[in-house]
Specification:
This protein is mainly beta. The chain is built from two helices and 20 strands. 3% of the residues lie in helices and 52% in strands. A hairpin with an 8-residue loop joins strand 11 and strand 12. The two termini are 25 Å apart.
Length: 411
């Protein structure tokens, strides 16, 4: 257990165990010879994605600040369609606390093209502010199309505390972990010149207040338990996560919203194919969520994409007040080349449970998104120095197909 905890810190390049005789012949002295790895890292690069367009990014990470295993992260990304700044500090164990309480503080400013307002068969842009719609706009009538996709800017920060629900350090890995925090955001809808935008071409308000800006103050609560044998490539065990966000009505919008979300994954070791030596597993995941009370359109659940229902573009399945999503995968080894290449057969299903019309302005419906979808396909997993790389090719029940790329396992 001690060795597992030491490796789990991620601070050491190598750990070697040496045993020496003790004064008591029934006992030994255990010496651990450790080689500390470089814990600071700066990186910069450029890329292109369908959501961000052409972008440049720079980040700094320090995983052992002050020699206390405290973490400092800062990232800046500037693109032709999006930009973000995110800084966070994590203390994994508040000194002297017997319950091993940790906390994370973060500040952020993110300007994105939200999936709720993008994609679909019908392009829905911002309305022209010089031609505002009437108080009661006619259904389907266009009011001054600017040709600009709505952007959402989130400026805010928060703090989250978490701790295992046990004092026994030997049972920390298998204990339930609870978290609680608070987050504030000033949310604004923007055009491509960063001006406030209030409505789309059909006269639908894009913010809850109708001013183009909302305040969202939310208390966050979570509960999780991880019984997987390996957090990166699990083949046995399960993990469950439940989260509740409760907003408090303040400022613009006076939003009172309760968001509930849960996820459960289960892994079963099997031996079905014998293409290469290595662990095989059947992996299952089910997720569900709902929002009670006020629902700003940009807070709706979205489905579709490489981390949701594969075979569809990001957010293409739709957006709604509630959702249900399930995935089954068969994971197996293919080659030992480059540290290991694995294969995956998968099927994904997601549905918004008929709640697309419950989102103000029905952004999914007016864009022609179906509201449910099923995808299936094959993929490979490549182990790299920056972590596992995920490459999937999926087909959809609607006749579509898509190649998708990501980092880490799907769940």
């Amino acid at each position: 257990a001690d060795l597992r905890n030491i490796y789990g810190l991620g601070l050491f390049e190598d750990v070697q165990v040496a045993l020496e005789p003790g004064e008591d012949p029934r006992k030994v002295v255990v010496n651990l010879n450790v080689q500390e790895r470089k814990t600071g890292n700066f990186s910069a690069g450029a890329g292109f994605s369908s959501n961000s367009g052409l972008f440049g990014t720079a980040s700094y990470t320090q995983n052992n600040l002050g020699g206390n295993n405290q973490k400092l992260n800062a990232e800046v990304q500037i693109g032709t369609r999006e930009y973000l700044f995110d800084a966070s500090f994590t203390d994994p164990w508040i000194a002297g606390d017997p319950y091993r309480t940790s906390y994370t503080v973060n500040l952020f400013n993110r300007l994105t093209l939200p999936l709720v307002f993008d994609g679909g068969n019908t392009e829905v842009n911002l309305g022209n502010p010089k031609e505002p719609p009437p108080v009661d706009p006619l259904p389907g009538q266009i009011y001054g199309d600017t040709g600009i996709t709505p952007r959402v800017n989130r400026l805010g920060g928060g703090v989250v505390f978490s701790r295992p629900l046990t004092k026994n350090p030997d049972k920390t890995a298998s204990a339930w972990t609870a978290s609680a925090g608070v987050q504030y955001q000033r949310i604004s809808i923007r055009d491509d010149s960063f001006n406030i935008a209030k409505y789309d071409i059909f006269g639908n308000n894009l913010s809850f207040s109708g001013t183009g800006q909302d305040d969202l103050l939310a208390f966050q609560f979570g509960l999780s338990r991880d019984l997987r044998n390996d957090p990166l490539t699990p083949t046995k065990g399960s993990v469950i996560r439940v989260g509740v966000d409760q907003s408090i009505p303040v400022g613009l919008g006076n939003i009172t919203m309760t968001r509930i979300r849960a996820s459960y994954s289960h892994f079963i070791p099997v031996k079905l194919l014998r293409l290469n030596k290595g662990p095989q597993a059947l992996a299952f995941n089910i997720q569900a969520g709902t929002i009670i009370g006020d629902l700003p359109p940009y807070e709706a659940f979205t489905l579709g994409g490489g981390s949701s229902v594969r075979g569809y573009d990001e957010g293409e399945v739709g957006s709604g007040r509630s959702f249900l999503q399930a995935t089954a995968e068969y994971r197996f080894p293919l080659l030992k080349f480059l540290g290991g290449i694995g294969g995956v057969l998968f099927v994904d299903y997601g549905t918004l449970l008929g709640t697309q019309a419950e989102v103000p302005g029905s952004p999914g419906i007016i864009r022609g998104k179906p509201g449910d979808g099923l995808g299936y396909g094959v993929g490979v997993r490549v182990k790299t120095p920056i972590g596992p790389v995920r490459l999937d090719y999926a087909w959809t029940i609607d006749g579509g197909n898509r190649f998708q790329f990501g980092f880490g396992e799907r769940f």
